[in-house]
Amino acid sequence: MTITSRHNPLVARFRDAARGDAGAVMLLDGPHLVGDALAAKIVVTLAAVTQASLAKPDIHELVTTLSQRGINVATVTAAVMDAISPLRSPSGIVALADRPAARMHDIYARPAPLAVLAVDVQDPGNLGAIVRVAEAAGATGVVAAGASANPFGWKALRGSMGSALRLPIGGGDPQAAVDGARRHRCRIVATVPRAGRMLFEIDLTGPIALLIGGEGAGLPEHLVAMADERVTIPMQPPVESLNAAVTAAVVLYEARRQRSTTTRSETRARSGPSTRPEPTREKTTV
Q1: Which of 204, 244, 23, 19 is nearest to 119 (CA)?
Q2: Which terminus of the chain, N or C, has less C-beta within 10 A?
Q3: Which residues are CB-contacts of 97 (< 8 A; sequence separation ≥ 6)?
Q4: Rounded to 5 degrees, what are φ and ψ at 98?
Q5: Of 162, 183, 204, nearest to 29 (Cα)?
Q6: CB under 8 Å to 159, separation ≥6 — which residues?
């Protein structure tokens, strides 16, 4: 049976989730996110698909997997999908899933955590991009603190390209987030547009909590003041600042570079001097 009415109760459930009015329920829009949720063992509770999209191999495979797991998949018309999906051009499949539990402890579970504390990053696309680059660069988790957007809202989820379904994510008050990082022996590194130490002069190899400020105002002064380090990314005039997600990417990849170099050096030190023979050089007669 195909749902043809926009007034069907199912439509209201999806629209509530898109607005963030469904509590711990999140909206997954598109085959990429639905597939990532299944791979990450996220609890998917309901899906909707158009008949036409079933002809696409990736969506057909997803629907088969969802059905095999006992998840209800409703077939809807294109008009109903337009009402369900918040996108201008719906992908053909959407799903509702339970939001992952906060995993603050997991952020600091490694010996040298690299945590990102995003403070007042209100644009969900920016926050999603921060989560994505955090996973890509090897960060151990993200804390969406203060007035930051919901990292599990549909825009942020799409911006993270599924990283928010895998990476440990927490939230809460910015001061509490900093205090929590200190309890795990992290050095607090605040990003500032000017007057900080040059990025490439700072040691980012130990336990680090990186503070990223929101659009426009940046980090609150009291958080900057209590940081152990203030880092500034060198920029060619007249550019004065970078997007929050770009700032996070530059600093996180510098941290990755430093940590990779340190790991290689430690591996060489443990293995001792090379036992390979020196290459034989032929004597030259003049």
Answers
A1: 244
A2: C
A3: 25, 26, 28, 37, 42, 43, 44, 45
A4: -75, 135
A5: 162
A6: 124, 125, 126, 127, 128, 129, 131, 132
pLDDT digits (tens, 9 = 90+) for 1-26: 789 999 999 999 999 999 887 789 99
Q: What is the pLDDT of residue 273?
A: 54
**For the chain, what's the residue count?**
286
Amino acid at 10: L
What is residue 96's DSSP assignment?
E
Neighbouring CB atoms inside 10 A of 46's CB total 18
| Contacts for 205 with CB less than 8 Å, ≥ 6 apart | 112, 255, 258, 259, 262
Dist. CA 109–CA 191, nearest whole Å: 24
| Domains in the chain with CATH codes | 2-98 (3.30.1330.30), 104-268 (3.40.1280.10)
* 180 φ, ψ (degrees, to nearest 5): -65, -40
Q: Are strands 93-98 and 44-50 parallel, antiparallel or unpaired?
A: antiparallel
How are the residues of the chain apportioned to helix, strand and coil, as percentages rounded to the nearest 5?
40, 20, 40
